[in-house]
Amino acid sequence: MAKSLSSGVVGFATPFTDDSFNGIPSISISATQAGSENNLSPSIFTLTRTGNLDSELTVNLLLQGTAKAGADYTASLGENNTLTVTFAAGSATATLNLPTLADEVVDSYDNILAILQSRSSYRLTPGEDRAEVIISAEGVTAVPNRRSYFGRSGGEYKNSIGPLQP
Predict the structure, then answer these.
(1) What is the number of alpha carbons within 13 Å of residue 58 lying toward its C-beta?
(2) Residue 117 domain-assigned?
(3) Structure confidence by residue, pLDDT tens digits, 33-65
């Protein structure tokens, strides 16, 4: 509720805070394992929700990148490379597991960029709405990239040959 102050400035009785989103969970995503063609380890993304955990929640994702579903990894994608991940009632995390497929192409890496999509049933955590993994191949190692953009990243990967660089 706004009121006019003697200075002519409008004051608000109740400041705007994140509490205004009570009941609407906040969703973030991070890359927790990079895939590998060498040992067929999957690419794994972990989704986290904070706030209301009372009921099941389905989240929409868009997958982009140079890696292609059906050629480099297994995923049942819908129209426009989208898919859904569902949080069980009471659960703060959900996992997206994308099994790696070995291919005949000798390439240094393929990437998968997972991007959370907006819906009215949840809000996106600023700066934590996307994550990327690299599917490593023949003798190439994926290492964590500490690059961050708005907020905390920590889930991105880059391609690098050799030991982990700080």
Answers:
(1) 3
(2) yes
(3) 988 888 888 999 999 999 999 999 999 999 999
